Amino acid sequence: ESPSSKHVAASATTTGRAHEALYSPVPGSGASLICGSDFAQSIAIAIIDQAQAKKPPQEVPQDLSIHNNQKEGDTLERITQHSAAASKDDTEKEIFQLLSCDQPSSIPSQSAAGLFCWIANPTHQRGQAEGRTRTTASYADQCRADPGDLLDLWTHMRHTVNDDTILVQALQAAKLKESLRIGHHTALKLWVPARDLGVDQVIRELQRGDYGEFFPLLQNDTTTTTTKVFVDAGSNLGFVTLLTALETDATIVAVEAASPTWVMQQLNLVCNLDRERLTSVYSVFSALGDADDQVLHLDWRAESTITVRGWDENHYRRRGSQPLQFTVPVHTLRTVMASTLAQDNFRIDVFKIDCEGCEYNVIPDLTEEEYASIHTMIGEIHFGFIPLERAPSKQRTETTHQRLCHHANFVQFAKECCQFPNQNILHLNIPIHQAKGYTKLCQDFAQWSSRNKLLEDRDDSAWQNVAKST
Q1: How many other CB atoms are found less than 10 A from the CB of residue 287?
Q2: Residue bearing the bigger pLDDT, 439 or 469
Q3: Beta bridge partners of 374
Q4: Which of 85, 126, 172, 372 would suit a FRET pair with 143, their CA atoms being 20 to 30 Å apart?
Q5: Cβ distance 350 to 214 under 8 Å?
Q6: Nearest one of 325, 252, 326, 259 to 286, comparing CA atoms
Q7: pLDDT tens sequence across 362-374
């Protein structure tokens, strides 16, 4: 639970904001999906023209730059070129070699690495990866996608992450939690970091229906052609995205910045959703910020995937945790929306933002028209997590809080909203001070704001440095 606010469901949805972006529905991505041309062509893909994007910093791999919307034929041509570069046999050999599938002792039991090793083994060799014979039935217990689609997914992930060490460690860390029930959805197959105890809490929150309140807002109106849009900023392992895809027919844009976590998200979506539903689920590997030319350095720890942004580095040093580290570029929300949905106007029906501080860049960056085009916001505010010496300016902080606190979810849980008692709550048309629970939440606001120096004057220099090199 945040020291400053409690999320309606303190979800498994991380991320500060970092990454590149190859925007696409799962599992295909322009410039990154290989193999399986029939499968690839069943996916609606949107990418951004590299020529129109700013060149990323030199330390960021060039393969991870953004591309702009192109005709579908151009996109499929890219996929075809990649498909020609890697046959099914080549992909299987690549997996077998990178994951050391011929060394069973090196593959954790029930891990995603074991799943891919089983797929990569030729028929007469299958079973070596885990030291025992596997059957088609046991494979089906792990993932509903067929082996050919998972070979495509492997290539997509490898091209997008562009770091074999990260990909291998992510697949080794991912362990299957099978036969889970969330609502009326049974036998879900969720891939999670084996050592991350926080995942169980998130699953319990989903099981008790913490997110169900916004699903009615995402049901498409059969009398119009307009499709509802859900954006999950800080989508982490993809649990909320997955449940939204199962419960609604909305178009979904899920944005995740931590590459190992994004890898597990791919498995959770592909292993639980059918092909038709995947065509309207866009899993975006990117950070969110207020410019398209910034970079971040992120740390990832398998025992704490929901806190990718390490505001308190000493905490992890005391625990002796050695993180995976990577550098990633940042993109604005409007860039993500334009590249994935290619819609003429900026419109979001439900915007979930839980990204460990990126709200202080994303929210102020919205124009008045863009902000007004978001019907409902839910999520977390992370002011209490950010050390004062790295905190955003008073103006940036106030703009962010004031906009978020127009929405009932934040008013209900975020102490930051106590600063605006007379501000109206959207869709309820009552001031914040009349909201249920206001008195209890805000009774110690003066002491809390003083302790956290919420109202203290400060410039934006420290925060701008964070945006470049966390």
Answers
A1: 34
A2: 439
A3: 348
A4: 85
A5: yes
A6: 259
A7: 999 999 999 999 9
Q: Where are the alpha helices (DSSP H) in 65-146?
A: 72-85, 88-98, 112-120, 136-140
Listed residue (43, 81, 56, 46) closest to 331, CA to CA? 56
- pTM for this one? 0.81
Do the Cβ atoms of 9 and 211 come closer than 8 Å?
A: yes
Q: What H or E segment, with its residue span, contains residue 152?
A: helix 147-161
* Edge-to-edge strand list for the sheet holding 324-332: 287-289, 324-332, 295-300
**pLDDT tens-place string over residues 242-253:** 999 999 999 999
Which tens digits make up the pLDDT trace of 7-62? 333 222 323 222 222 233 443 333 222 222 333 332 223 222 222 333 333 343 33
**What whole-number distance in Å separates Cα of residue 280 and Cα of residue 266?**
14
Mapped onto helix, strand or coil, the DSSP state of residue 325 is: strand
Q: Phi-psi category of 35—alpha, beta or left, where left has phi over 0 and alpha has psi -120 to 50? A: left
Q: What letter represents residue 57's amino acid?
A: P
Helix 259-270 and helix 239-247: axis angle, to 10°? 30
Identify the burial level of 74 via C-beta atoms within 10 angstroms of its C-beta, where 0-12 means exposed, 13-18 middle and 19 or more buried.
middle
Alpha-carbon gap, residue 244 to 230, rounded angstroms: 8
Q: How far apart are CA 311 and CA 388, in angstroms?
A: 11
Do residues 350 and 375 touch, judged by C-beta distance below 8 A? yes
What is the SS3 assignment for 155? helix
Measured distance CA(464)–CA(4) in Å, rounded: 22
Q: Return the DSSP state at 282.
A: E
Residue type, position 9, single letter: A
Q: What is the pLDDT of residue 65?
A: 34
pLDDT in tens, 131-160: 444 444 466 678 888 888 899 899 999 998
Q: Is 251 in contact with 280 (CB distance < 8 Å)?
A: yes
